[in-house]
From TrEMBL:
InterPro entries: NAD(P)-bd_dom_sf (IPR036291), SDR_fam (IPR002347)
The keyword Oxidoreductase belongs to this UniProt entry's keyword annotation: yes
Sequence similarity: Belongs to the short-chain dehydrogenases/reductases (SDR) family.
Coiled-coil region(s): none
Gene Ontology MF annotations: oxidoreductase activity
Protein name: SDR family NAD(P)-dependent oxidoreductase
Organism: Saccharopolyspora aridisoli
Alphabetical list of SUPFAM superfamilies matching this protein: NAD(P)-binding Rossmann-fold domains
Keywords: Oxidoreductase
CDD domains in alphabetical order: retinol-DH_like_SDR_c_like
Length: 296
């Protein structure tokens, strides 16, 4: 069987892709592949200087725009400045296992950045999107049984691994409910999700535990697949004819590495009632609603 690669991307000339966290790692690999396929790529990054260093490595047409997903004012500013169509909105940015901390708006930093920031961005930009919203999740969504509804911020009981798992579960529930709303609205836009397997990126270097950082650095050297391969599920979910709300990951053992394919998720990540409940909570926390909310 021929393994799918970025060489099989369609011609994306005339298409625009917005990729969060695209100055390094999976986001930059995704940007480079889409640029080679002809897309105009927008690197939406918190650190504009690092974005400017990275954008030169993106073939074809590319630009940098500042976006801090941990600051809803920055998310609104990014969205308010947008004009024109977005073929692919790729919610890629994320933080993993950081020391306990809060976003500018007072949310636990992983839930606030990985989920709420992308929730806000997607809802503010969805009227511009013409084809796909891809949200990058993780196999770590399997590490938690559900959302901590009464205390998503882990107040007084911070566990970085569980908080990360919750944020990745939220990514999948968000995708599920977004697709439902798009379908109900008669939109042709598809919401999909992807995970990279075990890919060597600098994401692991942000862990607050020094021992965990060292262990993950060793794993990156000897067990992980390259970031270029880790980006393939995202590219597949963004460009191939997959169903709405589908989830793409590697086809190898335990989904750690391999070629992109449709993969499963936990029962907690497939619960439509939990997805709707999370959406309502996210609207309450961010003050941002789906543009066609009156239809639901």
């Amino acid at each position: 069987m021929t393994r799918w690669s970025s060489d099989q991307l369609p011609n994306l000339a005339g298409k625009t892709a917005v990729i969060t966290g695209a100055n390094s790692g999976l986001g930059l690999e995704t940007a480079q592949a889409l640029g080679r396929a002809g897309a105009h790529v927008v690197l939406a990054v918190r650190n504009a200087a690092k974005g400017e260093q990275a954008v030169g490595s993106v073939p074809g047409s590319a630009e940098v725009r500042r976006l801090d997903l941990g600051d809803l004012a920055s998310v609104r500013e990014f969205a308010d400045s947008w004009d024109g169509e977005i073929s692919m909105l790729i919610n890629n940015a994320g933080v993993m296992f950081p020391p306990e901390g809060l976003t500018r708006d007072g949310f636990e930093i992983q839930f606030g950045t990985n989920h709420l920031g992308h929730f806000a961005l997607t809802n503010l930009l969805i009227d511009h999107v013409t084809d796909r919203v891809v949200t990058v999740s993780s196999s770590m969504h399997r590490s938690v049984k559900g959302i901590r509804w009464e205390d998503p911020n882990f107040t007084g009981a911070y566990d970085p691994q569980k908080a990360y798992g919750q944020s990745k579960l939220a990514n999948l529930l968000f995708t599920l409910e977004l697709q439902r709303r798009l379908s109900e609205a008669g939109s042709a836009v598809r919401a999909t999700a992807a995970h990279p397997g075990y890919a060597a990126t600098n994401l692991q270097s942000h862990a607050g535990n020094p021992l965990l950082r060292r262990l993950m650095a060793v794993g990156n050297l000897f067990a992980a697949q390259p970031a270029q391969v880790g980006a393939l599920p995202t590219l597949f979910a963004a460009t191939q004819d997959v169903p709405g709300a589908s989830y793409v990951g590697p086809d190898g053992p335990f989904e750690l590495r391999g070629s992109p394919t449709l993969v499963g998720r936990t029962q907690a990540a497939s619960d439509p009632e939990a997805a709707q409940r999370l959406w309502t909570l996210s609207e309450h926390l961010t003050g941002i609603t789906f543009p066609m909310a009156e239809k639901f």
